[in-house]
Amino acid sequence: MPSLEDELFPSTPGKFKIDRANTMNRQFHRCFASTSTMFLWALFLVALTASYLSFQSFVYTGSRYFTASWGGIQWEQQIRHSAQIHRSNGMSVLVTGAAGFVGSHVSLALKKRGDGVVGIDNFNNYYDPSLKRARKSLLNNQGIFIVEGDINDARLIAKLFDTVAFTHVMHLAAQAGVRYAMENPHSYVHSNIAGLVTLLEACKSANPQPSVVWASSSSVYGLNEKVPFSETDRTDQPASLYAATKKAGEEITHTYNHIYGLSITGLRFFTVYGPWGRPDMAYFSFTRNILQGKPITVYRGKDRADLARDFTFIDDIVKGCVGSLDTSGKSTGSGGKKRGPAPYRIFNLGNTSPVTVPTLVSILERHLKVKAKRKFVDMPGNGDVPFTHANISLAQRELGYKPTTDLATGLKKFVKWYLSYYGYNHGKDVN
Ligand SMILES: O=C(O)[C@H]1O[C@H](OP(=O)(O)OP(=O)(O)OC[C@H]2O[C@@H](n3ccc(=O)[nH]c3=O)[C@H](O)[C@@H]2O)[C@H](O)[C@@H](O)[C@H]1O
């Protein structure tokens, strides 16, 4: 049975063990023989600890200061310039997630008609950040400034509101993706719950308060079987953590409307697709794989039923977002105090004509002129729902929302963009 000493010095032969112990004992006695030496040692250790702690705090403060990529007179000027309104009765909008798919499109549309736009985006690497950078360049060229930062950074958000009296916030920053929630659940809580609250805190305290329009999701309908989905249908059976955080967002925004008088509009987007889209989504990854000659996985539901989505083209979604901003009504509070009731609205923004996933693949094959290698797999229990289908009559009535792009037409535009952006041989082994 090896002794403790054997374990600490496993390869030391017995004789040396005793010698080493004796030597250590002698050294110990020599060093700490007198009380005064011990006192000096203690003093030295205390001084060492104190200097280490103060160095740590210097490094922390310093790194916070040196890594801040925002602030300063020039930065404020850029923000104010970007927020300038160039039409009568225009608005100045803070767009969160501005380098994202929907965020970049909405920002451009607002800027084009003369509204002031300031973007914020954290450029995270959930999908290829170079695509976000490319969208940012596009926006910069149109005079839109994008702040690189996180909506969880309360100081940054407060600074933005100090710099510009935003009339509206278009909140599109989020952790998207239904299935990724099983891999990285905390990123959903971070962005879709904590980030949302940080943003709403800033909105509530702003004077004047902005009106808030934000992205909820069709996924809140979860396992609901009644079709088409209407805003009054039950939304208490989410099938994924993503859906649960979006549903939580609807409840959280309701409390800010109720307590602080913030005008809130939540938009339930239905599987948005189009040029400059998200590479994690099926239509995008299918396109990449088809062109690269790789197989695509097509999920099937119970009894091998095809899955279906109410795919909605980006231009239609942009119209719904802009219509929501235009009709949002004012927040009533100021400086954190409610002065009266404010609008609280929720709308479906879908296309009203679901298409099955195999049909989506056939359309892509036609546009790409390449055959797909389909691999059918039973839908894994990872948060997916079998179908979505929007009833949009409320949005039609209140926002004038009227989608005009069918899936074949929208995918044609997507494929055209994809080929011009990546080319035919992107990621293909050309040897
Ligand atoms: O409306 C929403 O609220 C959500 O829309 C989008 O989610 P989904 O509708 O799930 O889109 P998407 O991933 O493109 O899968 C489409 C279909 O392809 C099937 N699918 C998917 C991947 C695959 O490899 N195979 C497959 O068959 C899959 O089973 C599904 O039937 C957004 O990503 C999400 O952020 C949120 O905004």
Features:
seven-stranded parallel beta sheet, NAD(P)-bd_dom_sf, disordered N terminus, binds the ligand O=C(O)[C@H]1O[C@H](OP(=O)(O)OP(=O)(O)OC[C@H]2O[C@@H](n3ccc(=O)[nH]c3=O)[C@H](O)[C@@H]2O)[C@H](O)[C@@H](O)[C@H]1O, 13 strands, alpha/beta, 431 residues, transmembrane helix
How would you sum up this structure in a few lines?
This protein is of the alpha/beta class and 431 residues long.
Provide an overview of this structure:
With 431 residues, the chain is α/β, with parallel strands linked by helices. It is 47% helix and 13% strand. The protein has helices at residues 4-8, 14-31, 35-67, 73-83, 101-112, 129-141, 154-163, 185-205, 241-260, 282-292, 314-326, 357-368, 393-399, 407-422, and strands at residues 92-96, 116-121, 145-148, 168-171, 211-217, 264-269, 272-273, 295-300, 308-309, 312-313, 344-349, 355-356, 373-378. It has a seven-stranded parallel beta sheet, with helices on both faces. A two-stranded parallel ribbon has the order 7-10. Helix 5 crosses helix 11 (314-326) and helix 7 (154-163) runs parallel beside helix 8. The radius of gyration is 29 Å and the shape is globular. Residues 1-35 and 48-66 have low confidence and may be disordered. Bound molecules: ligand UGB. The site of the ligand O=C(O)[C@H]1O[C@H](OP(=O)(O)OP(=O)(O)OC[C@H]2O[C@@H](n3ccc(=O)[nH]c3=O)[C@H](O)[C@@H]2O)[C@H](O)[C@@H](O)[C@H]1O has 18 residues, from strand 8. The ligand O=C(O)[C@H]1O[C@H](OP(=O)(O)OP(=O)(O)OC[C@H]2O[C@@H](n3ccc(=O)[nH]c3=O)[C@H](O)[C@@H]2O)[C@H](O)[C@@H](O)[C@H]1O binds at residues 176-178, 217-219, 269-271, 281-282, 297-299, 307, 309, 357, 384.
